[in-house]
Amino acid sequence: MAEAQRSTSFDAVADCYDRTRALPDDAARTFTEALAAELTGRGRCLEIGVGTGRIALPLARRELPMAGVDLSAPMLSRLVRNAGGRAPFPLARADVAALPFGPGRFGAALAVHVLHLVPQWRRAVAELVRVVRPSGLLLVDAGGASQGVQDAVGARFAAEADLPDYPGMRDAEELDGLLEARGARRRLLAPVRVEQHRSPESVIAELEAGIFSRTWTVTPETRRRAAAATRGWAADALGDLAAPRTVIEEIVVRAYDLPG
Ligand SMILES: C[S@@+](CC[C@H](N)C(=O)[O-])C[C@H]1O[C@@H](n2cnc3c(N)ncnc32)[C@H](O)[C@@H]1O
Predict the structure, then answer these.
(1) Out of 19, 84, 233, 234, which could bridge 200 as a Cys pair, Cβ 3.0 to 4.6 Å?
(2) Which atom of ligand 1 has the smallest separation from the CA of 96?
(3) pLDDT at 4
(4) Contact 235, 201 (CB under 8 A)
(5) What domains lie within the chain, and their CATH numbers?
């Protein structure tokens, strides 16, 4: 469990996770459809870091056989509540770097917003290759390109608070290299465009409140100080802090076809 202890725990945000990470309905639908098109007919798909089921539940509702693991019991409890009070598919509390499954158990696996959190992410990738059968599929959302007020404010806040980088995967090309070395063929799925409207103040307030995992390594006092400094900077650099701006993000899923 030593590696698990160094991973980022989401226990404290289980109750606000869905509210603060929800995609707009149209983007969520497009994302689910793109994943479902890849997963249909492949057998059971394991989502690692399944969390509250934000991604897996809509897939399960489309009759795709899913399974999930997560380190956080509160996140898994929330998933069960989101599903109406009963586990909608097999769930296990486990570390992605030591999956409690035999070789070739799944037809596919899915990792969304998780490998950047895991110090042992290379071991987690080896685990995915082990538990997915030959000719199976891995789908990884390694974070998309975004632009606009969210990035500018986030970067300023990170500098003011001296936030460390995420503890896990930083470079999706390293992931490509690892999997290609194991004989996988990489494809990029069509980007899913996400358009949201955010004011600088709403972004700063969320960073100050410690909603996002990158801010969890610093104290509330550091977050308050960084938020005050970021507000001062943003008033000069961006103008009206309360006025919503358009934020565009593109989610790019990497698909890896495993060798037979
Ligand atoms: C950002 S959330 C993503 C949840 C879900 N995939 C989604 O997109 O909504 C990351 C999840 O990974 C879990 N997690 C982090 N490190 C983990 C590890 N080493 N093993 C298993 N789960 C882990 C956290 O508990 C959390 O539920």
Answers:
(1) 234
(2) 20
(3) 45
(4) no
(5) 2-257 (3.40.50.150)
200 C-alpha to ligand 1 centroid (Å): 27
If you measure from the C-alpha of residue 31 to the centroid of ligand 1, how many angstroms do you get, rounded to a whole number?
18
H or E stretch covering 27 = helix 25-39
CA 79–ligand 1 middle distance (angstroms): 12
Residues near 21 by beta carbon (within 8 Å), at least 6 away in sequence:
54
pTM: 0.93
Alpha carbon dihedral 92, 82, 203, 164, in 10-degree steps, equals -10
Spell out where the chain has E strands: 45-48, 66-70, 91-93, 106-112, 132-141, 145-147, 185-188, 192-198, 245-251, 253-257
Token pair recorded at residue 111? 């990792």
